What does this fold into?
Amino acid sequence: MTALESDTVLSLSTIRRLPRYLRVLQDFAASGKEYASSEAIASHLHLTPIVVRKDLFFSGIIGKPRRGYHIPCLIAHIEQIIHLHEPSSAFLVGAGNLGSALLGYSGITKSGLTIYAAFDNDSGKIGRMICGKQIYAMEKITAMGRRLSVQIGILCVPYDAAPSCADLLVQAGVRGVWNFSNRELRLPAHVAVHNEDLSAGLAILSIALNHQPKKATE
Amino acid sequence: MTALESDTVLSLSTIRRLPRYLRVLQDFAASGKEYASSEAIASHLHLTPIVVRKDLFFSGIIGKPRRGYHIPCLIAHIEQIIHLHEPSSAFLVGAGNLGSALLGYSGITKSGLTIYAAFDNDSGKIGRMICGKQIYAMEKITAMGRRLSVQIGILCVPYDAAPSCADLLVQAGVRGVWNFSNRELRLPAHVAVHNEDLSAGLAILSIALNHQPKKATE
DNA sequence: TAGATTGTTAATCGATTAACAATC
DNA sequence: TAGATTGTTAATCGATTAACAATC
It folds into this structure.
């Protein structure tokens, strides 16, 4: 009893590339193309054709020799893998600068995620709307989460508030936390956590900038 | 003529972890500790002690058997590696939701990056201040960049505007681009690019959520 | 057919983990 | 000394790259 497609475990690196494939393919589709070769996809994403073919192969997508991959099928298939066809729901906690930006970020909607509501401790924000989303008091989160069966929590609170807010999200019933707080979270095993660490990106850039100018002498 | 410390090439994975070490170490310091073992650091970051020792070793940091690493030295050393002691300067392009949030994001300042100014095409924004940063018209970017010798460009414009804005940043003299646009950039080799792809994080979370409940039958 | 492009196995590379000797 | 913790080499694991046969 092997191998329904979803038994194949996609590697993290492959998953990370799927949304990028999607964007390129949508560009191709918009320009009227019907088929795309692994070479064409790869060159637009600074990848090798081999990695593209492997990613698509693991995703269970079949191409045609000499023509490449049928773009509409490919798009549909990738969207299905990252579950864009069955949109998920989220609560956002912490409507500060970053949180407010995410409330209005179209990329989230495009990724099939609907933010139902946001929560904050700041009485100046509670009751207001930000980017069309209502801001509620933190106390309401558990009851509302259970009532609406919300799936994902977007954590945009400061470092010190992160652990307690994450716990509240878990009590509210989320099964995944998208963590922008830079704080390491200890959550029950059934809750998936993805840490978004902006300072990592800055560190990479900073080192690239400062170590790069060293010209090889040999 | 080998091995000044900076000849050692740190791996991307190691660099990504350095800011996380920094945060834990600052917590330790705040709670009055003087030394930290690789085990203590690792347990706070869900890492193994071995990976911590290796990262610190590659960073040229020496610990003491039986005591661990001297926290103040360690902090100073890591800050030096990611160049927090010589802050760099940035221009931000695209003062939309995400861009505006980054203008007010304290994490950037903490990482030693000063945003000098922001640029936008929207005449409604030009001349205004957002989070204490002046918004200028895009046309001004080249002259201002060269005058101020700005090092990093933070690209927060929509997908379609990304290539031309990135080119303008290069003309303004930046040597690194922190790219939030989701668009693949083709820039000269001397310009470092770091892509921040939020949809990758969402894809990982979405797949974790939807493929995880599958209970093993064997 | 010839040629281009896929599917798939094998080789390489890099990062993590294991093991253990060195040291305070 | 005994014991804990580092520094460092070796083994494992996973992801990328190379190679090439299969196919349209």
About this structure: The two ends of chain A are 58 Å apart (CA to CA).
